From TrEMBL:
It is found in: Secreted. Keywords: Hydrolase, Signal. This is Polysaccharide deacetylase family protein. It is an enzyme of class 3 (hydrolase). GO terms for molecular function: hydrolase activity. It comes from the Bacteria. Coiled coil: none annotated. Its EC number is 3.-.-.-. Residues 89-277 form the NodB homology domain. PANTHER family: POLY-BETA-1,6-N-ACETYL-D-GLUCOSAMINE N-DEACETYLASE (PTHR34216:SF3), PTHR34216. Its main location: secreted.
């Protein structure tokens, strides 16, 4: 059963779909179609929570994405943004945190379908024993990925990215040594553990206040290729390609479709948000 809010969203989605199609066409003709990046956390049927999606709902989203978009890697997204020109609807898929259950359905499905994926893991939670504080708070310690999981994914072509050591609010770190440990040392240790270079970093929580110029400077000094936020914004051609703005892959399909078909109410979010070089 749909509640009033969902009915409202369906009405909005359907009511604006023609107009939205026209505006996408205009953006396509001028090479100004934004490129989307999605973030998921956990795909599993047990213990549903706000950062999980069921296997069936995930597969439904992926099948729809396959029909409607080119599914691309983060480097490809950045190329389109930095070229200043994009005339094809495209989405880059990412995951945050490092939940073990993603190995059961989500990652095998994406690999089977040949869909690029970047998988951000929190280095301090990869010994198979510690659960994330946000899960402990709910009384349900969910299993996390191990180094072996990440090694295996990397061998299959999944891009492994860094997501700090302790899943901290990077924007709130005042102490330089802590910042270096969370952003630099944890990333280096992850790279060493999986014997692969790490190219991307995703800020936990990912709102503007959870990021900092000092942290971005450190990622540049390490030679990373980009950082990801998570406050829901599109990546328009010509904007800063180093900062990849992502959209939550909402388990509610209508909200998910609403974002990805370019909601005109949301196109100004994050425009011109640029870290210093
Ligand atoms: Zn996270």
């Amino acid at each position: 059963m749909l509640d009033t809010r969902q009915i409202g969203l369906h009405a909005y989605y359907l009511g604006t779909s023609w107009w939205r199609k026209q505006s996408r066409e205009k953006l396509r003709q001028t090479g100004q179609l934004p490129v989307c990046s999605l973030f998921y956390h956990r795909v599993a049927d047990a213990h549903p929570n706000p950062w999980s999606i069921s296997c069936a709902d995930f597969e439904r989203q992926i099948r729809w994405l396959q029909q409607e978009f080119e599914l691309i890697s983060l480097p490809d997204l950045q190329r389109r943004v930095s070229s200043g020109n994009n005339d094809r609807m495209a989405v880059a898929i990412t995951f945050d945190d490092g939940y073990a259950e993603n190995m059961e359905f989500a990652i095998p499905l994406l690999l089977d379908l040949g869909i690029p994926v970047t998988y951000f893991v929190t280095f301090g939670f990869m010994d198979g024993e510690r659960a994330f504080p946000h899960d402990l708070k709910r009384g349900i310690p969910l299993p996390t990925n191990t180094i072996d999981d990440c090694r295996w994914m990397a061998e299959q072509g999944v891009e492994i990215g860094a997501h700090t050591r302790s899943h901290c609010d990077v924007g709130g770190i005042a102490d330089r040594a802590t910042l270096i440990d969370e952003v630099v040392t944890a990333t280096e240790e992850l790279s060493e553990a999986i014997s692969r270079p790490i190219r991307y970093f995703a800020f936990p929580y990912g709102k503007p206040e959870n990021m900092s110029q000092a942290a971005v400077d450190l990622t540049r000094q390490m030679g990373l290729k980009g950082v990801c936020s998570a406050y829901g914004a599109y990546n328009f051609p010509g904007e800063d390609p180093y900062h990849i703005q992502r959209i939550h892959a909402d388990p509610e399909f209508i909200r998910f479709k609403n974002w990805l078909t370019i909601d005109p109410r949301k196109t100004s979010i994050g425009r011109g948000f640029k870290f210093l070089d």
